[in-house]
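Thread title: Can someone regenerate the structure for this chain?

I was given the following input by a collaborator and told the matching C-alpha cells would be attached. They weren't. Posting the sequence so someone can regenerate them.
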Amino acid sequence: MMAYNPAAQFEIKVSDVEFRRAPARTLMARVYQPRGAGPFPTLLDLHGGAWNDKDRLANAPMDEALAASGILVVAVDLTLAPEAPYPASVQDANYGIRWLKAKAGEWKGDPTTLGALGSSSGGHVIELCAMRPRDPRYNAHPLPEAPGVDATLAYVATRSPISDPFARFQQAERMQRAEMMQKSRTYFKPWETIFEGNPQQMLDRREAVSLPPLLIMQGGLDDNVLPALQEKFAASYRAAGGECQLEVFAGCQHMWVAEPGPQTDRAHEMVKAFIARQLRAMRRAA
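Best answer:
Regenerated them for you:
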C-alpha cells in the first residue's frame, strides 16, 4: 500500500469510459488518474441530484482536488428515478464498487484501499451500499470478470447525505416544496421503500449492518437536510459501534461546495485528511 500524503501535488489525466449498459441508457464513468507510478488509493464518487437529476460530472471540483493529491477518483453515472425507482441506483453503486475494485489496477489504483464519496442523495445511496454490502437485492448486477469481488468499503465520506429520506420528505412538506416532494415519490415507488431503504431507520431497527468509518460534512444553514437529523444519525451510528466524524460548516447551505471559497477549500482538505487517517489505520493493521 502506497503512503498517501494529502499535501502532495500531481498532474491528473481525465478520461471517460463506459461503466454499465442500463436499460434506459449507457452509464459512463469519469476517471481522474494521477500521473505517477502508483499504486494510488482509490475512491468511488456518487453524485447527488435528489435521485432524479445530475450525473458523474456533478462533483468535479472535489474529484479533481482529491485526484491532484494522489488519489485515483472514479465518478459514475447512476440510474435516475424517472428511469427506474429504488433500488436501481443502489444496484448501480454496488456494481460500481465491485467494478472499480476489478478495474483499479488499469489506472494504477490500489483496490484494497477502496473507499467512497457520496453527496446528498448520493450520500444516501452510498450509506445503503456500505451498510448492506452483501444484500442480494443490491448485488443484482453480476460482474462475470470478477465474480469473487465483494462490495465492502474501507471508509465512506459524505457531503449533506440524506441519511433519513423520510424525515427529509417531511421537511420538504413543511417548506411546501412540491417539486422536492415529487422527486421522493418518484424514487421511492412503492412508497413503503422510503422506510426500508432508510439508513437512520435501519439503525433504529437495530439491523445487522456493516459500519465502515464515516465522515459527514453538513451545512449549518441547510434547510433541506437539517443539521439535527445528521446529529441524530451520527449518534446512532456511533451507538451501533461505528466510527463517525460529523463536521458542521457554519453559514453554509445544502450545496455550499458548488461554489469556490474558503468553506469549499476546507471541505476538500477535510476529505483528504479523513482518507489519510483511514489509510494510516489500514497500514498499521496490515
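The domain at 12-164+196-285 is CATH 3.40.50.1820 (Rossmann fold).
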